[in-house]
Amino acid sequence: MTIDTKYLIVGGGMTGGAAAKGIREHDADGSITLYFQSESPGKDKESNWLPAPQGDFLPMLRMYWPKQKDPSLLDGTWKPPQIVKVN
Prior knowledge:
The protein is low in regular secondary structure. The chain has 1 helix and 2 strands; from the N terminus they run H-E-E. The protein has a two-stranded parallel ribbon. The protein is globular, with a radius of gyration of 15 Å. The model has no long low-confidence stretch (mean pLDDT 78).
């Protein structure tokens, strides 16, 4: 497996989807389904699409001013949800 080790944000003309608009549609249960893929998942899902390169990639999560009390990323009482690959 080859992954870009420079940890760069995907660019190169990928300006569609949630990365450009900052919009997220919530699921009925309040959760958010994000689509990490190179091609649009369809107009109805583009608000939750984060363009990704073709092939293997490493998703990164930036946390700005995380909470210091529970639940907190800092002490491990909060963890981001697991990414699930679907076909």
